[in-house]
Specification:
6-stranded mixed sheet; 4 domains; 547 residues; alpha/beta; Rossmann fold
Protein backbone atom coordinates (compact mmCIF):
# COMPACT_ATOMS: atom_id res chain seq x y z
CA UNK A 1 0.00 0.00 0.00
CA UNK A 2 1.11 3.55 -0.67
CA UNK A 3 -0.32 6.51 1.25
CA UNK A 4 -0.17 10.15 0.12
CA UNK A 5 -0.78 12.72 2.89
CA UNK A 6 -1.12 16.50 2.27
CA UNK A 7 1.29 16.37 -0.67
CA UNK A 8 1.84 19.56 -2.67
CA UNK A 9 4.01 20.12 -5.75
CA UNK A 10 4.96 23.47 -7.29
CA UNK A 11 6.23 24.10 -10.78
CA UNK A 12 7.90 27.49 -11.37
CA UNK A 13 6.26 28.80 -8.18
CA UNK A 14 2.84 27.75 -9.50
CA UNK A 15 1.08 24.93 -7.57
CA UNK A 16 0.66 21.88 -9.83
CA UNK A 17 -1.46 20.18 -7.21
CA UNK A 18 -2.00 20.94 -3.54
CA UNK A 19 -2.88 19.04 -0.35
CA UNK A 20 -3.32 15.65 -2.05
CA UNK A 21 -4.60 12.88 0.22
CA UNK A 22 -4.91 9.44 -1.39
CA UNK A 23 -4.49 5.75 -0.59
CA UNK A 24 -3.49 3.15 -3.17
CA UNK A 25 -4.32 -0.36 -1.97
CA UNK A 26 -3.46 -3.89 -3.22
CA UNK A 27 -5.78 -5.52 -5.73
CA UNK A 28 -6.69 -2.21 -7.39
CA UNK A 29 -5.59 -0.39 -10.53
CA UNK A 30 -5.67 3.42 -10.41
CA UNK A 31 -5.83 5.39 -13.67
CA UNK A 32 -4.32 8.89 -13.48
CA UNK A 33 -5.98 11.28 -15.92
CA UNK A 34 -5.90 15.03 -16.56
CA UNK A 35 -5.35 17.65 -19.22
CA UNK A 36 -1.97 18.14 -20.88
CA UNK A 37 0.34 19.80 -18.38
CA UNK A 38 -1.88 18.92 -15.39
CA UNK A 39 0.95 16.90 -13.82
CA UNK A 40 0.14 13.22 -14.50
CA UNK A 41 3.71 12.09 -15.19
CA UNK A 42 4.99 14.43 -12.49
CA UNK A 43 2.73 12.73 -9.94
CA UNK A 44 4.15 9.30 -10.86
CA UNK A 45 7.69 10.68 -10.50
CA UNK A 46 6.78 12.05 -7.06
CA UNK A 47 5.37 8.64 -6.03
CA UNK A 48 8.51 6.84 -7.26
CA UNK A 49 10.83 9.27 -5.49
CA UNK A 50 12.40 10.50 -8.74
CA UNK A 51 11.03 13.97 -8.00
CA UNK A 52 10.84 15.79 -4.69
CA UNK A 53 7.52 17.11 -3.44
CA UNK A 54 7.29 20.48 -1.70
CA UNK A 55 5.29 19.38 1.33
CA UNK A 56 3.45 16.42 2.82
CA UNK A 57 4.46 12.76 3.12
CA UNK A 58 4.41 9.65 0.93
CA UNK A 59 4.72 6.32 2.71
CA UNK A 60 4.85 2.70 1.58
CA UNK A 61 4.15 -0.44 3.56
CA UNK A 62 7.58 -1.57 4.92
CA UNK A 63 9.22 -4.33 2.91
CA UNK A 64 7.22 -3.69 -0.28
CA UNK A 65 8.93 -3.33 -3.65
CA UNK A 66 8.04 -0.69 -6.23
CA UNK A 67 8.65 -1.09 -9.98
CA UNK A 68 8.55 1.74 -12.53
CA UNK A 69 8.28 1.65 -16.33
CA UNK A 70 11.54 3.25 -17.48
CA UNK A 71 11.41 5.90 -20.20
CA UNK A 72 15.10 5.94 -21.22
CA UNK A 73 15.26 3.55 -24.19
CA UNK A 74 19.08 3.61 -24.35
CA UNK A 75 19.89 3.02 -20.68
CA UNK A 76 20.36 -0.75 -21.08
CA UNK A 77 22.13 -0.94 -24.45
CA UNK A 78 25.12 -2.69 -22.83
CA UNK A 79 22.96 -5.51 -21.47
CA UNK A 80 21.16 -8.48 -22.95
CA UNK A 81 17.38 -8.49 -23.33
CA UNK A 82 16.84 -11.13 -20.63
CA UNK A 83 19.22 -9.43 -18.19
CA UNK A 84 17.41 -6.13 -18.75
CA UNK A 85 14.08 -7.74 -17.86
CA UNK A 86 15.54 -9.46 -14.79
CA UNK A 87 16.89 -6.10 -13.55
CA UNK A 88 13.27 -5.25 -12.85
CA UNK A 89 13.68 -7.50 -9.81
CA UNK A 90 17.01 -6.15 -8.48
CA UNK A 91 17.43 -8.71 -5.69
CA UNK A 92 17.01 -11.68 -8.03
CA UNK A 93 19.34 -10.11 -10.60
CA UNK A 94 22.00 -9.50 -7.94
CA UNK A 95 21.80 -13.09 -6.65
CA UNK A 96 21.77 -14.50 -10.19
CA UNK A 97 24.94 -12.62 -11.18
CA UNK A 98 26.69 -13.49 -7.88
CA UNK A 99 25.80 -17.15 -8.49
CA UNK A 100 27.19 -17.06 -12.03
CA UNK A 101 30.38 -15.34 -10.88
CA UNK A 102 31.16 -17.87 -8.18
CA UNK A 103 30.69 -20.84 -10.54
CA UNK A 104 33.01 -19.22 -13.08
CA UNK A 105 35.89 -19.11 -10.58
CA UNK A 106 38.83 -21.31 -11.54
CA UNK A 107 40.08 -21.74 -7.95
CA UNK A 108 36.77 -22.86 -6.40
CA UNK A 109 37.40 -23.11 -2.63
CA UNK A 110 35.44 -24.77 0.17
CA UNK A 111 34.33 -21.31 1.28
CA UNK A 112 33.06 -20.69 -2.27
CA UNK A 113 31.11 -23.93 -2.05
CA UNK A 114 29.35 -22.78 1.14
CA UNK A 115 28.61 -19.39 -0.44
CA UNK A 116 27.33 -21.10 -3.62
CA UNK A 117 24.99 -23.25 -1.53
CA UNK A 118 23.60 -20.14 0.20
CA UNK A 119 23.13 -18.40 -3.14
CA UNK A 120 21.38 -21.46 -4.58
CA UNK A 121 18.90 -21.40 -1.69
CA UNK A 122 18.27 -17.68 -2.11
CA UNK A 123 18.01 -18.04 -5.92
CA UNK A 124 15.41 -20.76 -5.53
CA UNK A 125 13.47 -18.81 -2.89
CA UNK A 126 13.29 -15.76 -5.18
CA UNK A 127 11.90 -17.86 -8.04
CA UNK A 128 15.12 -17.94 -10.05
CA UNK A 129 14.50 -21.36 -11.62
CA UNK A 130 11.24 -20.17 -13.19
CA UNK A 131 12.55 -16.71 -14.10
CA UNK A 132 13.84 -17.41 -17.62
CA UNK A 133 10.60 -19.10 -18.69
CA UNK A 134 8.55 -16.25 -17.19
CA UNK A 135 10.69 -13.65 -18.98
CA UNK A 136 10.26 -15.40 -22.32
CA UNK A 137 6.48 -15.66 -21.84
CA UNK A 138 6.25 -11.97 -20.98
CA UNK A 139 8.36 -10.90 -23.95
CA UNK A 140 6.34 -13.08 -26.34
CA UNK A 141 3.06 -11.84 -24.86
CA UNK A 142 4.20 -8.25 -25.42
CA UNK A 143 4.98 -8.98 -29.06
CA UNK A 144 8.77 -9.42 -29.03
CA UNK A 145 9.61 -12.39 -31.26
CA UNK A 146 11.71 -15.23 -29.82
CA UNK A 147 14.62 -14.50 -32.15
CA UNK A 148 15.25 -11.27 -30.20
CA UNK A 149 15.14 -12.76 -26.67
CA UNK A 150 18.87 -13.57 -26.56
CA UNK A 151 20.10 -10.41 -28.26
CA UNK A 152 21.66 -7.26 -26.84
CA UNK A 153 19.42 -4.27 -26.21
CA UNK A 154 21.55 -2.21 -28.60
CA UNK A 155 20.39 -4.47 -31.48
CA UNK A 156 16.70 -3.65 -30.92
CA UNK A 157 14.72 -0.81 -32.43
CA UNK A 158 12.76 1.65 -30.28
CA UNK A 159 9.42 -0.20 -30.44
CA UNK A 160 11.14 -3.44 -29.37
CA UNK A 161 12.93 -1.72 -26.48
CA UNK A 162 9.58 -0.38 -25.24
CA UNK A 163 8.33 -3.97 -24.93
CA UNK A 164 11.44 -5.10 -23.06
CA UNK A 165 11.22 -2.20 -20.58
CA UNK A 166 7.55 -2.98 -20.01
CA UNK A 167 8.44 -6.63 -19.31
CA UNK A 168 11.13 -5.34 -16.90
CA UNK A 169 8.55 -3.31 -14.97
CA UNK A 170 6.05 -6.14 -14.52
CA UNK A 171 8.60 -8.92 -13.91
CA UNK A 172 8.88 -10.42 -10.45
CA UNK A 173 5.44 -9.49 -9.12
CA UNK A 174 6.26 -6.04 -7.64
CA UNK A 175 4.05 -4.84 -4.77
CA UNK A 176 3.49 -1.45 -6.41
CA UNK A 177 3.66 -0.93 -10.17
CA UNK A 178 3.91 2.54 -11.75
CA UNK A 179 3.24 2.70 -15.52
CA UNK A 180 3.45 5.86 -17.63
CA UNK A 181 1.76 5.34 -21.03
CA UNK A 182 2.44 1.57 -21.13
CA UNK A 183 0.45 1.00 -24.36
CA UNK A 184 2.57 3.40 -26.45
CA UNK A 185 4.14 1.51 -29.34
CA UNK A 186 2.13 -1.67 -28.73
CA UNK A 187 -0.28 -3.25 -31.20
CA UNK A 188 -3.79 -4.27 -30.15
CA UNK A 189 -2.81 -7.88 -29.49
CA UNK A 190 0.04 -6.87 -27.16
CA UNK A 191 -2.22 -4.38 -25.40
CA UNK A 192 -4.77 -7.16 -24.89
CA UNK A 193 -2.07 -9.36 -23.34
CA UNK A 194 -1.10 -6.53 -20.98
CA UNK A 195 -4.75 -5.89 -20.08
CA UNK A 196 -5.22 -9.56 -19.17
CA UNK A 197 -1.98 -9.56 -17.16
CA UNK A 198 -2.98 -6.48 -15.14
CA UNK A 199 -6.52 -7.73 -14.54
CA UNK A 200 -5.02 -10.79 -12.83
CA UNK A 201 -2.26 -8.81 -11.09
CA UNK A 202 -2.87 -9.08 -7.33
CA UNK A 203 -1.00 -5.98 -6.18
CA UNK A 204 -1.24 -2.18 -6.63
CA UNK A 205 -1.09 -0.63 -10.11
CA UNK A 206 -0.97 3.13 -10.81
CA UNK A 207 -1.09 4.01 -14.49
CA UNK A 208 -1.13 7.07 -16.77
CA UNK A 209 -2.67 6.34 -20.17
CA UNK A 210 -4.60 8.00 -23.01
CA UNK A 211 -6.01 4.63 -24.14
CA UNK A 212 -9.68 4.63 -23.06
CA UNK A 213 -10.28 0.91 -23.66
CA UNK A 214 -7.20 0.10 -21.60
CA UNK A 215 -8.36 2.36 -18.76
CA UNK A 216 -11.85 0.88 -18.93
CA UNK A 217 -10.55 -2.69 -18.87
CA UNK A 218 -7.96 -2.52 -16.09
CA UNK A 219 -8.93 0.37 -13.78
CA UNK A 220 -10.95 0.05 -10.59
CA UNK A 221 -10.41 3.73 -9.69
CA UNK A 222 -9.78 6.94 -11.64
CA UNK A 223 -7.72 9.78 -10.14
CA UNK A 224 -8.53 13.01 -11.93
CA UNK A 225 -6.04 15.89 -11.79
CA UNK A 226 -7.92 19.17 -12.23
CA UNK A 227 -8.24 22.54 -10.45
CA UNK A 228 -4.87 21.78 -8.82
CA UNK A 229 -6.45 18.86 -6.97
CA UNK A 230 -6.44 15.08 -7.42
CA UNK A 231 -9.92 13.61 -6.96
CA UNK A 232 -10.47 9.88 -6.75
CA UNK A 233 -13.52 8.24 -8.34
CA UNK A 234 -14.58 4.61 -7.98
CA UNK A 235 -14.90 2.83 -11.34
CA UNK A 236 -13.26 2.95 -14.76
CA UNK A 237 -12.76 5.78 -17.28
CA UNK A 238 -16.25 5.57 -18.82
CA UNK A 239 -17.83 5.81 -15.37
CA UNK A 240 -15.70 8.87 -14.59
CA UNK A 241 -16.49 10.47 -17.97
CA UNK A 242 -20.25 10.01 -17.55
CA UNK A 243 -20.06 11.31 -14.00
CA UNK A 244 -18.03 14.35 -15.09
CA UNK A 245 -20.59 15.14 -17.81
CA UNK A 246 -23.40 15.02 -15.25
CA UNK A 247 -21.46 17.27 -12.87
CA UNK A 248 -20.70 19.67 -15.73
CA UNK A 249 -24.37 19.89 -16.70
CA UNK A 250 -25.30 20.49 -13.08
CA UNK A 251 -22.69 23.23 -12.85
CA UNK A 252 -24.02 24.86 -16.03
CA UNK A 253 -27.57 24.70 -14.65
CA UNK A 254 -26.40 26.29 -11.43
CA UNK A 255 -24.53 28.98 -13.37
CA UNK A 256 -27.64 29.67 -15.47
CA UNK A 257 -29.81 29.93 -12.36
CA UNK A 258 -27.21 32.19 -10.78
CA UNK A 259 -27.12 34.41 -13.86
CA UNK A 260 -30.92 34.70 -13.83
CA UNK A 261 -30.84 35.53 -10.13
CA UNK A 262 -28.08 38.10 -10.68
CA UNK A 263 -30.09 39.71 -13.48
CA UNK A 264 -33.16 40.00 -11.22
CA UNK A 265 -31.08 41.39 -8.38
CA UNK A 266 -29.40 43.94 -10.62
CA UNK A 267 -32.74 45.15 -11.95
CA UNK A 268 -34.07 45.43 -8.39
CA UNK A 269 -31.00 47.39 -7.26
CA UNK A 270 -31.27 49.84 -10.17
CA UNK A 271 -35.00 50.34 -9.68
CA UNK A 272 -35.10 50.78 -5.95
CA UNK A 273 -31.73 52.07 -4.77
CA UNK A 274 -33.02 55.65 -5.06
CA UNK A 275 -36.30 54.79 -3.30
CA UNK A 276 -36.00 55.56 0.40
CA UNK A 277 -38.56 52.93 1.38
CA UNK A 278 -36.79 50.25 -0.58
CA UNK A 279 -33.16 51.36 -0.17
CA UNK A 280 -32.46 49.07 2.78
CA UNK A 281 -33.80 46.06 0.84
CA UNK A 282 -31.80 47.11 -2.25
CA UNK A 283 -28.60 47.36 -0.19
CA UNK A 284 -29.22 43.89 1.20
CA UNK A 285 -29.74 42.49 -2.28
CA UNK A 286 -26.60 44.23 -3.55
CA UNK A 287 -24.61 42.27 -0.97
CA UNK A 288 -26.13 39.05 -2.34
CA UNK A 289 -25.34 40.21 -5.88
CA UNK A 290 -21.70 40.88 -5.01
CA UNK A 291 -21.42 37.48 -3.35
CA UNK A 292 -22.91 35.73 -6.40
CA UNK A 293 -20.55 37.59 -8.69
CA UNK A 294 -17.59 36.35 -6.68
CA UNK A 295 -18.76 32.75 -6.60
CA UNK A 296 -17.83 31.93 -10.16
CA UNK A 297 -17.40 28.25 -10.82
CA UNK A 298 -13.78 27.33 -11.60
CA UNK A 299 -13.12 26.71 -15.27
CA UNK A 300 -11.77 23.24 -15.98
CA UNK A 301 -8.23 22.97 -17.24
CA UNK A 302 -9.44 20.50 -19.84
CA UNK A 303 -9.74 21.79 -23.36
CA UNK A 304 -11.70 19.88 -25.98
CA UNK A 305 -10.95 20.83 -29.58
CA UNK A 306 -13.94 21.32 -31.84
CA UNK A 307 -13.78 18.56 -34.46
CA UNK A 308 -16.58 18.42 -37.03
CA UNK A 309 -16.33 17.04 -40.56
CA UNK A 310 -18.91 18.41 -43.02
CA UNK A 311 -19.15 17.04 -46.55
CA UNK A 312 -19.79 19.60 -49.31
CA UNK A 313 -21.60 16.95 -51.32
CA UNK A 314 -23.68 13.90 -50.47
CA UNK A 315 -21.94 10.70 -51.51
CA UNK A 316 -23.46 8.49 -54.23
CA UNK A 317 -23.76 4.70 -54.45
CA UNK A 318 -20.43 4.18 -56.24
CA UNK A 319 -17.60 4.95 -53.83
CA UNK A 320 -14.45 2.89 -54.46
CA UNK A 321 -13.54 -0.20 -56.47
CA UNK A 322 -10.07 -1.74 -55.93
CA UNK A 323 -8.99 -4.52 -58.30
CA UNK A 324 -5.95 -6.79 -57.97
CA UNK A 325 -3.46 -4.26 -56.58
CA UNK A 326 0.09 -5.53 -56.13
CA UNK A 327 2.81 -3.57 -54.38
CA UNK A 328 6.36 -4.34 -53.23
CA UNK A 329 8.66 -2.21 -51.11
CA UNK A 330 12.27 -3.15 -50.41
CA UNK A 331 11.54 -6.57 -51.99
CA UNK A 332 8.77 -7.20 -49.46
CA UNK A 333 5.33 -7.99 -50.88
CA UNK A 334 2.98 -5.65 -49.00
CA UNK A 335 -0.09 -6.07 -51.22
CA UNK A 336 -0.86 -9.12 -53.34
CA UNK A 337 -3.85 -9.17 -55.69
CA UNK A 338 -5.71 -6.93 -53.24
CA UNK A 339 -9.33 -6.27 -54.16
CA UNK A 340 -12.08 -4.49 -52.25
CA UNK A 341 -15.35 -2.66 -52.87
CA UNK A 342 -16.30 0.22 -50.57
CA UNK A 343 -19.98 1.14 -50.13
CA UNK A 344 -21.57 4.51 -49.32
CA UNK A 345 -22.39 3.65 -45.68
CA UNK A 346 -19.02 2.06 -44.83
CA UNK A 347 -16.80 3.06 -41.96
CA UNK A 348 -13.99 0.57 -42.39
CA UNK A 349 -11.32 -0.20 -39.80
CA UNK A 350 -8.22 -1.88 -41.25
CA UNK A 351 -6.78 -4.07 -38.49
CA UNK A 352 -4.10 -6.71 -37.92
CA UNK A 353 -0.32 -6.83 -37.70
CA UNK A 354 0.45 -5.87 -41.33
CA UNK A 355 0.70 -2.14 -40.55
CA UNK A 356 3.00 -1.40 -43.49
CA UNK A 357 0.54 -3.01 -45.89
CA UNK A 358 -2.29 -0.80 -44.63
CA UNK A 359 -0.18 2.36 -44.90
CA UNK A 360 0.90 1.37 -48.42
CA UNK A 361 -2.73 0.87 -49.48
CA UNK A 362 -3.73 4.28 -48.09
CA UNK A 363 -0.76 5.93 -49.83
CA UNK A 364 -1.70 4.29 -53.15
CA UNK A 365 -5.36 5.37 -52.86
CA UNK A 366 -4.14 8.94 -52.28
CA UNK A 367 -1.53 8.80 -55.09
CA UNK A 368 1.40 9.20 -52.70
CA UNK A 369 2.67 5.85 -54.01
CA UNK A 370 2.02 3.96 -57.23
CA UNK A 371 0.95 0.31 -57.33
CA UNK A 372 3.11 -2.15 -59.28
CA UNK A 373 -0.03 -3.46 -60.93
CA UNK A 374 -3.80 -3.38 -60.52
CA UNK A 375 -6.20 -0.46 -60.51
CA UNK A 376 -8.75 1.43 -58.43
CA UNK A 377 -11.67 3.73 -59.26
CA UNK A 378 -13.25 6.45 -57.13
CA UNK A 379 -16.94 7.20 -57.71
CA UNK A 380 -17.81 10.48 -59.46
CA UNK A 381 -19.56 11.90 -56.39
CA UNK A 382 -16.61 11.22 -54.08
CA UNK A 383 -13.99 13.63 -52.79
CA UNK A 384 -11.17 12.37 -50.59
CA UNK A 385 -8.90 13.77 -47.92
CA UNK A 386 -6.03 11.98 -46.18
CA UNK A 387 -4.29 11.99 -42.82
CA UNK A 388 -1.09 9.93 -43.29
CA UNK A 389 0.78 8.31 -40.43
CA UNK A 390 3.87 10.37 -41.19
CA UNK A 391 2.89 14.02 -41.69
CA UNK A 392 6.41 15.51 -41.53
CA UNK A 393 6.45 16.56 -45.21
CA UNK A 394 3.49 18.91 -44.66
CA UNK A 395 5.43 20.96 -42.12
CA UNK A 396 8.75 21.50 -43.92
CA UNK A 397 7.77 25.09 -44.73
CA UNK A 398 8.52 28.53 -43.28
CA UNK A 399 4.92 29.32 -42.38
CA UNK A 400 3.16 30.13 -39.14
CA UNK A 401 0.06 28.04 -38.34
CA UNK A 402 -2.37 30.62 -39.79
CA UNK A 403 -0.53 30.91 -43.11
CA UNK A 404 -0.08 27.14 -43.24
CA UNK A 405 -3.80 26.49 -42.90
CA UNK A 406 -4.70 29.24 -45.41
CA UNK A 407 -3.14 27.00 -48.08
CA UNK A 408 -6.09 24.63 -47.64
CA UNK A 409 -8.90 27.14 -46.98
CA UNK A 410 -11.37 28.43 -49.58
CA UNK A 411 -11.88 31.42 -47.27
CA UNK A 412 -8.63 33.43 -47.20
CA UNK A 413 -9.59 35.94 -44.51
CA UNK A 414 -7.13 35.85 -41.59
CA UNK A 415 -9.89 36.34 -39.02
CA UNK A 416 -11.81 33.32 -40.37
CA UNK A 417 -8.76 31.04 -40.35
CA UNK A 418 -7.64 32.18 -36.89
CA UNK A 419 -11.19 31.70 -35.59
CA UNK A 420 -11.11 28.17 -36.98
CA UNK A 421 -7.74 27.54 -35.34
CA UNK A 422 -9.06 28.90 -32.05
CA UNK A 423 -11.62 26.10 -31.97
CA UNK A 424 -8.71 23.68 -32.46
CA UNK A 425 -7.00 25.18 -29.38
CA UNK A 426 -4.61 27.48 -31.26
CA UNK A 427 -5.90 30.69 -29.73
CA UNK A 428 -4.31 34.14 -29.75
CA UNK A 429 -0.57 34.15 -30.46
CA UNK A 430 -0.61 30.35 -30.67
CA UNK A 431 -1.93 30.70 -34.22
CA UNK A 432 1.27 32.55 -35.17
CA UNK A 433 3.67 29.79 -34.08
CA UNK A 434 6.01 28.50 -36.82
CA UNK A 435 4.81 25.07 -37.94
CA UNK A 436 8.38 23.73 -37.82
CA UNK A 437 8.40 23.86 -33.99
CA UNK A 438 5.03 22.19 -33.39
CA UNK A 439 4.71 19.11 -31.19
CA UNK A 440 3.36 15.82 -32.54
CA UNK A 441 -0.10 16.51 -31.07
CA UNK A 442 -0.19 20.06 -32.47
CA UNK A 443 0.70 18.80 -35.94
CA UNK A 444 -2.14 16.26 -35.85
CA UNK A 445 -4.57 19.02 -34.79
CA UNK A 446 -3.35 21.09 -37.76
CA UNK A 447 -3.89 18.12 -40.08
CA UNK A 448 -7.38 17.60 -38.69
CA UNK A 449 -8.10 21.28 -39.39
CA UNK A 450 -6.92 20.74 -42.98
CA UNK A 451 -9.25 17.74 -43.31
CA UNK A 452 -12.22 19.66 -41.92
CA UNK A 453 -11.71 22.52 -44.39
CA UNK A 454 -11.60 20.09 -47.34
CA UNK A 455 -15.35 19.37 -47.32
CA UNK A 456 -14.53 15.81 -48.45
CA UNK A 457 -17.07 13.00 -48.17
CA UNK A 458 -14.41 10.28 -47.84
CA UNK A 459 -11.94 10.46 -44.94
CA UNK A 460 -8.81 8.28 -44.98
CA UNK A 461 -6.87 8.23 -41.71
CA UNK A 462 -3.73 6.27 -40.82
CA UNK A 463 -3.53 6.01 -37.01
CA UNK A 464 -5.11 9.45 -36.37
CA UNK A 465 -5.02 9.15 -32.56
CA UNK A 466 -1.19 9.09 -32.49
CA UNK A 467 0.15 11.98 -30.34
CA UNK A 468 -3.35 13.13 -29.31
CA UNK A 469 -4.46 13.53 -25.69
CA UNK A 470 -7.64 12.00 -24.30
CA UNK A 471 -9.68 15.15 -24.91
CA UNK A 472 -8.67 15.41 -28.57
CA UNK A 473 -9.24 11.66 -29.09
CA UNK A 474 -12.72 11.98 -27.56
CA UNK A 475 -13.56 14.93 -29.84
CA UNK A 476 -12.26 13.15 -32.96
CA UNK A 477 -14.05 9.95 -31.97
CA UNK A 478 -17.43 11.71 -31.69
CA UNK A 479 -16.85 13.62 -34.95
CA UNK A 480 -16.23 10.40 -36.89
CA UNK A 481 -19.27 8.70 -35.35
CA UNK A 482 -21.42 11.63 -36.53
CA UNK A 483 -19.76 11.99 -39.96
CA UNK A 484 -22.31 11.11 -42.71
CA UNK A 485 -19.70 10.04 -45.29
CA UNK A 486 -17.25 7.14 -45.71
CA UNK A 487 -14.31 6.58 -43.35
CA UNK A 488 -11.30 4.32 -44.05
CA UNK A 489 -8.96 4.18 -41.07
CA UNK A 490 -6.58 2.22 -38.93
CA UNK A 491 -5.85 2.69 -35.23
CA UNK A 492 -4.30 1.02 -32.19
CA UNK A 493 -7.09 2.44 -30.03
CA UNK A 494 -9.58 -0.36 -29.33
CA UNK A 495 -12.38 1.96 -28.20
CA UNK A 496 -11.88 4.17 -31.24
CA UNK A 497 -12.31 1.22 -33.63
CA UNK A 498 -15.22 -0.31 -31.73
CA UNK A 499 -17.24 2.91 -31.58
CA UNK A 500 -16.70 4.02 -35.21
CA UNK A 501 -16.32 1.00 -37.51
CA UNK A 502 -19.21 -0.98 -38.98
CA UNK A 503 -16.86 -3.04 -41.15
CA UNK A 504 -13.53 -4.75 -40.34
CA UNK A 505 -10.88 -5.56 -42.96
CA UNK A 506 -7.68 -7.44 -42.11
CA UNK A 507 -4.88 -7.68 -44.67
CA UNK A 508 -2.90 -10.90 -44.11
CA UNK A 509 0.06 -12.44 -46.00
CA UNK A 510 -2.33 -14.92 -47.63
CA UNK A 511 -5.44 -12.91 -48.35
CA UNK A 512 -8.01 -10.55 -46.90
CA UNK A 513 -10.58 -11.08 -44.16
CA UNK A 514 -13.61 -8.82 -44.63
CA UNK A 515 -16.53 -8.70 -42.21
CA UNK A 516 -19.53 -6.37 -41.84
CA UNK A 517 -19.41 -6.31 -38.06
CA UNK A 518 -18.11 -4.43 -35.04
CA UNK A 519 -14.55 -4.87 -33.83
CA UNK A 520 -15.54 -6.66 -30.62
CA UNK A 521 -17.64 -9.15 -32.60
CA UNK A 522 -14.75 -9.64 -35.03
CA UNK A 523 -12.18 -10.58 -32.39
CA UNK A 524 -14.68 -12.85 -30.59
CA UNK A 525 -15.83 -14.70 -33.73
CA UNK A 526 -14.69 -18.36 -33.72
CA UNK A 527 -14.89 -18.55 -37.51
CA UNK A 528 -12.66 -15.48 -37.88
CA UNK A 529 -10.19 -17.00 -35.42
CA UNK A 530 -9.87 -20.12 -37.58
CA UNK A 531 -9.54 -18.10 -40.79
CA UNK A 532 -6.80 -15.96 -39.24
CA UNK A 533 -4.95 -19.08 -38.17
CA UNK A 534 -4.94 -20.39 -41.75
CA UNK A 535 -4.04 -16.99 -43.24
CA UNK A 536 -0.86 -16.72 -41.14
CA UNK A 537 0.10 -20.41 -41.30
CA UNK A 538 3.62 -20.97 -42.62
CA UNK A 539 4.50 -17.26 -42.61
CA UNK A 540 6.66 -17.37 -39.49
CA UNK A 541 4.59 -14.52 -38.06
CA UNK A 542 3.17 -15.19 -34.63
CA UNK A 543 -0.29 -13.90 -33.86
CA UNK A 544 -2.73 -14.58 -31.10
CA UNK A 545 -5.62 -16.30 -32.76
CA UNK A 546 -7.92 -15.03 -30.08
CA UNK A 547 -7.12 -11.37 -29.55
Amino acid sequence: MITVSDVSVKFSDKPLFKDVNLKFTPGNCYGIIGANGAGKSTFLKVLSGDLEHDSGTISMTPGERMAVLKQDHFAYDEYSVKDTVMMGYPKLYEVSKAREAIYEKEDFSEEDGIKASELEGEFSELGGWEAENQIEQMLSGLGLEEEYHDRMMSELDESQKVRVLLAQAIFGNPDILLLDEPTNGLDIESITWLENFLMEFPNTVIVVSHDRHFLNTVCTYICDIDYGKITQFTGNYDFWYQMSQILQRQAKDQAKKREEKMKDLKEFILRFSSNAAKSKQATSRKKIYDKLALEELPVTTRKFPYVNFKADREIGNNVLEIKNINYKEDDIQLLKDFSLTINRTDKVAFVGIEHNSISALFDILNKVKTADSGEFYWGQTTSQTYLPRDNAEFFKVDYNITDWLKQYSKEQDDAYVRGFLGRMLFSGDESLKPVKVLSGGEKVRCMLSKLMLSGANVLIMDDPTNHLDLEAIQSLNEALINFPGVVLFTSHDHEFIQSIANRIVEITPNGVIDRMTSFDNYIQDDQVTEIRKKMYEGTGKKIKYRV
